[in-house]
């Protein structure tokens, strides 16, 4: 099996694994799987050298499409992560406002100065 074929198999397996972990909402597993993929991909890319056969060129085109799919998955993952972080920040702020409702009040309402001479 050539390095290009091993890379294609790795990418297909990673897409399946990331889909499964994304559906399970397993963020830590998703990140670990992606890091493992990057490490393995780096090793395999170092083994790929020209000249390429026609079969390797066709697989290369398929690899580009698979890479696009992985990038879309990662984009969706980071978008949901950003949304979750934003919601958590809003929730913390709301809880703080609920616990200390008059903390940010800086007006002097209700103050009366009696001026007698």
TrEMBL record:
Function: May act as an export chaperone for the filament capping protein FliD.
Keyword hit for Chaperone: yes
Entry superkingdom: Bacteria
Family the entry assigns: Belongs to the bacillales FliT family.
Organism (species): Melghiribacillus thermohalophilus
Record keywords: Bacterial flagellum biogenesis, Cell projection, Chaperone, Cilium, Cytoplasm, Flagellum
Protein name: Flagellar protein FliT
Compartments where found: Cytoplasm, Cytosol
């Amino acid at each position: 099996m050539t390095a290009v074929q091993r890379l294609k198999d790795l990418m297909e397996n990673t897409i399946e694994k990331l889909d499964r972990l994304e559906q399970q909402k397993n963020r830590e597993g998703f990140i670990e799987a992606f890091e493992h993929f990057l490490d393995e991909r780096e090793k395999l890319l170092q083994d790929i050298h020209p000249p390429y056969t026609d079969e390797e060129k066709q697989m290369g085109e398929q690899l580009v499409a698979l890479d696009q799919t992985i990038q879309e998955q990662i984009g969706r993952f980071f978008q949901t992560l950003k949304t979750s972080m934003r919601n958590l920040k809003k929730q913390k702020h709301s809880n703080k406002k609920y616990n200390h409702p008059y903390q940010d009040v800086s007006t002097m309402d209700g103050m009366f100065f009696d001026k007698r001479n």
